Amino acid sequence: MKLRLGSSWLVYLCLYLFVDLHGHLSQAANILGVFPFWQPSPYQVVRPLMKALIKRSHNVTLITPAAVLDDIEGVRHIRVPMLDQQWHDMINSDQLLEFFRNKWTEGVMASALFYNISQAILGHDGVQRMLRDKNEHFDMIIMDTNHFEALYGLAEYYNASLMGLSCVRQSWHTEALAGNPAPSINDPISPMGYSMGHSLFSMIYNWLFITEEKMLESLVIRSAQLRVFKKYFGYSAQKFEDLRASFSVILINSHFSMGRVRANVPNLIEVGGLHLSETPEPCDSELQRFMDEAEHGVIYFSMGLDIMVSYLPESMQQPLQQAFSRVKPRIVWKNELATTPNKTDKLYAIAKAPQRQILAHPNVRLFITQGGLLSVLEAIDSGVPMLGLPLFFDQFINMDRAKQCGIAEVLDSNNLNTDTVTKTIQELLENPKYGFRAEKMSKSFRDRPMSPLDTAVWWTEYVLRHRDAKHIRLNKEDISVVQYYRLDYLLTYLTRVGFVVGVLLFLSFRLFRKIRAAQSRPLERQIAYMQIINFEESD
């Protein structure tokens, strides 16, 4: 009997220690993620976080397109094929060139796209069944911070916390959602037409540029989202605005070591490099041998996951190929075209490149890239200098900032010539300052108290533990303009300066009048004297 009792106590003790060490198991939450990306690269950021939350025993449901993200074990997937169709129609539309004509055309077309995506998600049969099921409940909604404000209604519908995950760089729109009202001219939503200069004229121009973006966002994009919001949830416009200010935490795919120090509020959390937590794909033996035997090092050339070589014009490919033949290092080229020779003594073409393993190889001396954020993060992590050939969206700003940090050079993709490409490659290879700065940035990027994934998980569970996270937000409504800009101190200062200036002006005026009066007396006497003389002569 005593043995049985002792065994029971031993079992209870083991269970207690297990629960104590893994307390998150008793706090498992229901989490709904909504990510309607059409390209595969953002899911490299989403996937490790979702896997980690599943490992922490949370229940995760994901709403995504049908053909982009592979199934994640333990995740309930709700696929929306209409999302694939929306993106496909935009990419193959004859109006795609109109998208890049000017900012207002871009804004109107983007607004229509965001409207159709929000409607496709909320109108999908699987999503509607989920909304009608009274047994469904969610503790948290995790969303991309793009312009899908209509979907914020899910947080109100389920009385759930709203958390953001930005897979791209930070913009003024992200800051506004986080309650970070610091004025900025350095973080546009779209860089199309944005000035990369640093002169006073560029600053004024960019202030007007971002002011125009804010007008577009308010008048065109947000009003379209409000219509979808009212249609599917029936909430008021005021509720729509309230939900925009309800993000508890926003995870940003950035890090201060990358040369962009921001004055962030506490709920903007930098997790740049989150996707690096996944095990990289290994190199095959042939590619490994090709890089190992590179006497003069290796140049790796890739335009990312989303840009195929077949899309690149000959005017861009020819100067690059000719420049490669003039430099000593071997070339590893991510190239899906079957017509390209797979391997020579100088060139190794590969359709699907294990990019992280290539960049981590000690013989890789230069990375030629389009400047996508994940590629830039991987190059920084490996300490490899870059040659940027940006084509669209955030690639221009990503590469411009890398250039400012001294770890990259940037060329105009539409105006390449062999001599310029060759000269730039040789400068990056032969000038040691690029490699030195890249290694220095890599050390700073890696040196953190927690890994990006652990940071993201900790803050996700922080929001779950503190459902009302208003204490880490700073909204414009919570602080007056006078307080935020310290106008009370400014007013006091101006009053003092004004008083002193007023006294000086008053004294100056009195002195002026006195001097003028003193100067006018002899003149008056002379005039009077002349009048007397004239009077006497007339007599």
Describe this structure in words.
This protein is α/β, with parallel strands linked by helices and 539 residues long. It folds into two domains: 28-252, 3-Layer(aba) Sandwich (Rossmann fold); 285-446, Glycogen Phosphorylase B (Rossmann fold). The protein has 20 helices and 13 strands. The chain has helices at residues 2-21, 43-55, 81-91, 96-99, 103-122, 125-132, 153-157, 172-178, 200-233, 237-244, 285-292, 314-326, 355-360, 373-382, 395-404, 418-430, 432-446, 452-465, 481-484, 487-538, and strands spanning 30-34, 59-64, 76-79, 140-143, 161-166, 247-252, 268-270, 298-302, 330-334, 347-350, 364-369, 386-388, 408-410. The strands form two sheets. The protein has a seven-stranded parallel β-sheet with strand order 3-2-1-4-5-6-7, sandwiched between helices. Strands 10-9-8-11-12-13 form a six-stranded parallel β-sheet, with helices on both faces. Strand 1 (30-34), helix 2 and strand 2 form a beta-alpha-beta unit. Helix 5 packs parallel to helix 9, helix 12 crosses helix 16 and helix 14 (373-382) crosses helix 17 (432-446). The longest helix is centred in the C-terminal third of the chain and has 52 residues, at 487-538. The relative contact order is 0.09. Mean pLDDT is 84; it is low at 1-5 and 15-26.
